[in-house]
Amino acid sequence: MTAALSVRDLTVNFGALVAVNAMSFDAAPGRITSVIGPNGAGKSSLFNLISGAIRPTAGRVQLDGRDVTGQPPYRLLAAGLARSFQITNLFFELPVFENLRLAAQIHETPLKALLPTRRSARALDRAEELLDRFGLTAKAQELAGNLSHGEQRRLEIAVALAARPRVLLLDEPTQGMSHGDTAETADMIRRLAGEMTVLLIEHDIGVVMALSDHVVVMHQGRKLAEGAPAVVRADPAVQAAYFGHA
Amino acid sequence: MRSPMAEFLDYTQFVLAPQVLNGLSLGVAVILMALGLTIIFGLLDVINMAHGEFYAIGAFLALALGALGLNFWILLALVPLLMVPLGWLTERALIQRVFHSRERHILTLLLTFGFGMILEDVLKLVFGANTQKPPMPITGGTEILGVFLPNYRLFLILFGAALILAVWVAVFRTRLGAMVRAAAYDKDMASSLGVPVRAVYSGTFAFGVALAGLSGVLLAPIYSVFPTMGRDFILMAFTVVIVGGMGSIQGAVVAGILLTQVQAISSLYISPVWTDPLVFGIMVMVLMVRPQGLFGRLGNA
Amino acid sequence: MLIDRAPAPTLPRARDAVHAIAVLFFTAALALGALGWWAGDSFYLRLATEALIFAGLAMSVDILLGYTGLLSLGQALWFGVGAYTSAVILRDVAASFWLAMGATLVVTTLAGTVGGLIANRVKGVYFALITFGLAQVVAKVVYNTRELGASDGLIGVPEITIPLGFATVDAANPAGFFLLVLALVALLYAGLAYLMDAPFGRTLIAIRANEKRVPFLGFNPLVHRMLAYVLAANVAALAGALYPMLRGFVSPELLFFQTSGNAVITVIVGGVGTLIGPVVGSVLLTALRSVVGTWTEHHLIVIGVLFMLSVVVMPKGLVGAVRPWLQRRLSGSESPR
């Protein structure tokens, strides 16, 4: 079975600093793969490389066996890869609904961009469906900037989901969430796994261990270990580098 | 038949050298203007669109005080001092008002643009729209290596060069300059180290404005004085700042000399009216290929 | 721009209020035009026509500033390209309105694409500077080119008659030409307001709001900034093309920074990101200049103060200031779409 997302020897350096150093791993289709590691391990840089935010110095990224290395984010989105951001990255002065409508416009033909917005029925339907699914219907006309932190985090995921990606990158989706919200979000991510491949960066080790099918551990830009959650947890090197500090 | 060598020497002496020296006197004046602009941008991220009007105010102050009988040498010190409170107040009343907004680049640009309009009209109101010419403070001329140069231009080059050097020393070799650079590099860090950041901001803006005023005093005898005198001159200063790198002192000096020399020398070969498009074209090219300019900005230098 | 305080231009109720202002404005203009025609006036009609022409330039600045988040300090460049293209066509090729407008669109689209590729290499304050520099280069070139009349400009543009199918308008007739320009500006407004509310315009608004997220939604921001730039250039140029028909001449001053700066002032005072704000602003500022101009030549002080006040205390401009009041008066029912 080909991996939904395959990363080979991916490397990027910023000047003398090698932020990501020869990373290789696969994300199996329909599964949740987590990337963990201490602060500064290079997890966010890894996500930026995979999602096209920055270009790698070396290495390759494949989506369903197709090489997509160095492609810009809008191409990757069309190829089926979407992402959310650790630091909420929404259109704060636009309504919640408009945030989702923008993200769902990808489902329409380019010509629809010039027709009245109400003619983009698929995008509008998708946006409404997501409002409902993320419990934001009551806030549809609220500006995204006026939402609570928890609601913004939910919208952040909803915006990434709007395109119906086959591979979804979630960068610390539960960041700053309350206990209850975290559990709810974890449930939501688990349900997503049937529909798509999920690659997750998460600080909450409990969430990682409960959700992941596969865990990749990063340390100082390199891959330290990978395997099933239980295997990784038992790895002495991982315990020394990561759990040892926790 | 004269030898090609003799012709070349004649050309150098009678055509090229005077042009280079004239360009140098303009270059020094442009650099003084550009220094104020670039220091203000380097520290405050403010594109001061009213800089040309501050220059005009300096020239008018010199004209008015000169008419009261004050001597040029006193004006050279007095006018910049008078400009300081104006600059300080402008910074406190205008720049600080929008300084913490996310769009401060654009907002401060718009505010200083509006303020410049008002200042220009105030100058018209007070002094009238006519062109006036203060007396030349130094008369006569000197022959240097066979090139004749008016003494005032010579003074301008030497005094301007000394001033540019003084600014450089002030920014890079004094405690005060270190504070400014620290604030430009990281204002929170500077603040926690005891740098009075707010005062440094106002003071730096006032310093830039004083430099503009001083340029006004120095150039008034050459270019005459009128309310819109800042308009064309500021375009050149802006070009210098952009080409040199917004916020870079070295950049302003290098680009100031480079561009005024391009202007001076090219006018020997093409019609002088085409030197402006040439210089602005260079600016556009630099913005396209290297928007940060030739040199990095203040805090990082 | 002025993002952090100006409300998003897409809120449905705010949009209704803006449309109401537009309808009110164009109705009032029509009524005043009729009054001018009845009174046999020519001075005020010509002045109002000029205000409407410069309103077109201001709208083009608003497309970039209010919708896409790009401050152009050189939009007069495109106004000038339109004015000169139109003048050359009318004077040297054929005195045809439609040919002049068509040629303006072709020339501006080609030149605007080149200009857009240059200007869109950079963002933010550098975009402002590069647009300024581009306009400056072209203005100086025009100023020096004898074939384009150099510093005197092109004079002797013939008075034209404009066949509209159902009627023929004489450009020399103040009321007729006023009505034509009013209709064109109204059409331009309606077309742009429609486009800015369609998904295309909303993508521009998204770029203004948060350009960094836009590529992750599948849009190429550069392509959209280019489209916005060329669109805005054409709007400015179409307005500029009307200028020689009104005045019979064009001069390099049309390309100077004063013209670009005035357009930015007009947009900010009128209401950035509203499209009708720039139109209202242009008419009000022209009226102000002419009223203040009758008792003092120092109208720059008044306009400068108004402009600065707009930036500091009224960032949404005049239209933004009356909008909440109008919104409350309009029906509250709304769909999320």
Largest interface pair:
B-C, 39 and 40 residues
* CATH fold-level assignment of the largest domain in chain A: Rossmann fold
Succession of helices and strands of chain C: HHHHHEEHHHHHHH
Strand order of the largest sheet of chain A: 6-7-8-3-9-10
Please give the CATH class of the largest domain in chain A: Alpha Beta
Mean pLDDT of chain C: 89
Overall outline of chain C: globular
Describe this structure in words.
Chain C: Its main location: membrane. Chain C: Pfam families: BPD_transp_2. Chain C: It is a multi-pass membrane protein. The complex is a heterotrimer of chains A (246), B (301) and C (337). Chain A has 246 residues and is of the alpha/beta class. Chain A has 2 domains: 1-80 and 165-246, Rossmann fold (3-Layer(aba) Sandwich); 90-163, no CATH class. Chain A is 36% helix and 24% strand. Chain A has 9 helices and 10 strands. In chain A, the strands form 2 sheets. In chain A, strands 6-7-8-3-9-10 form a 6-stranded mixed sheet, sandwiched between helices. In chain A, helix 3 packs across helix 4 (121-133) and helix 3 (96-104) runs parallel beside helix 5 (149-161). The model of chain A has no long low-confidence stretch (mean pLDDT 90). Chain B has a two-stranded antiparallel ribbon. Chain B is globular. Chain B has a domain at 26-228. By secondary structure, chain B is an all-alpha fold. Chain C has a domain at 12-16 and 26-255. Chain C is mainly alpha-helical. A two-stranded antiparallel sheet of chain C has the order 1-2. Chain A binds chain C through residues 51-52, 72-74, 77-78, 82-83, 85, 89-95, 97-98, 101-103, 105-106, 108, 112-118, 120, 123-124, 128, 140-141, 143, 159-160, 162-163, and chain C through 3, 7-8, 10-12, 194-195, 197-200, 202-203, 205-206, 209-210, 212-213, 215-220, 334, 336-337.
